Amino acid sequence: MKENTCQRVLDFLEIIRRLRAPDGCPWDREQTHESLKSYTIEEAYELIEAIESGQDSLIKEELGDVFLQIALHCQIASERGAFDFGDVVEKISQKMIYRHPHVFGDKKVFSAREVEQNWAKLKKKEKNSDSALDGIPAVLPALLTAHRMSERASKVGFDWPDIASIFDKIEEEWQEVQEAYEEGNFQETREELGDLLFVIINLIRRLDGNAEEVMRETTHKFSRRFREMEKILSETHQTIGDLNSGEMDALWEKVKRRENR
Fold it and tell me: How far apart are the C-alpha atoms of 250 and 3, rounded to whole Å?
């Protein structure tokens, strides 16, 4: 199985080399690290959708598309003598061994929490970083960035002592939002809303969730219910705009009840 897998990887890398060859595909030959950025991001999101679908066939397909992006980047780098696929595999292998001394060395750990803390220490030492927040990509979605920052901070001890204290902080931040709004200071209101959202993201993290995933689930739910409202109204040749606020609320509740049966 191992030799068969290795051969299939080599065969695929040869396909990529052939596509990039002078007599290969014009589109593939034109690609650069820069031009592939948006495709790499798009494929990663499509993989997330496939995982959420729970369909192995889709997950397999989207993993292949992500691997295609990796192979293309490696081939482009290889052509200018920077690195190749083998170098990438070797680098990540070394990193995994270095950051798992409890598996490949003699360090003892007794919980996943200890593993995370040790990982953070080793990563900081390895990268010679000045801050626990270093290394978070600037292009991450804002909710995911906030999650990662709060997660990093918690690993070095900067966190609320318990869930109850986070709820207290949410109440405090909500009060500050209301006060800023009542004073007519809309810039401060925005800032206070940001602070409130950041605390909520921390609460989600402490409840073993991820704000990006929670919000995606919520938007999917809203889209599903809103579309069902539109479908119901279309049967009587109406639109959302034809309803008053009370009728909208009633229809929304009707859709929710249908969904929860």
Answer: 62
Comparing CA positions, the residue from 104, 43, 31 lying closest to residue 72 is 31
How is the chain classified by DSSP, letter by letter? Answer: -HHHHHHHHHHHHHHHHHHHSTTS-HHHHH--TTTTHHHHHHHHHHHHHHHHHT-HHHHHHHHHHHHHHHHHHHHHHHHTTS--HHHHHHHHHHHHHHT-HHHHSS----SHHHHHHHHHHHHHHHHT-SSTTTT--TTS-HHHHHHHHHHHHHHTT-S-SSHHHHHHHHHHHHHHHHHHHHTT-HHHHHHHHHHHHHHHHHHHHHTT--HHHHHHHHHHHHHHHHHHHHHHHHTTT--GGGS-HHHHHHHHHHHHHHHT-
Q: What is the pLDDT of residues 133-178, one digit of tens each?
A: 888 888 888 999 999 999 989 988 899 999 999 999 999 999 999 9
Say how far apart CA 99 and CA 105 lie, in whole Å: 10
* The two three-digit tokens of residue 233, written as one number: 């109204």
**pLDDT (tens digit per residue) in 231-245:** 999 999 999 999 999
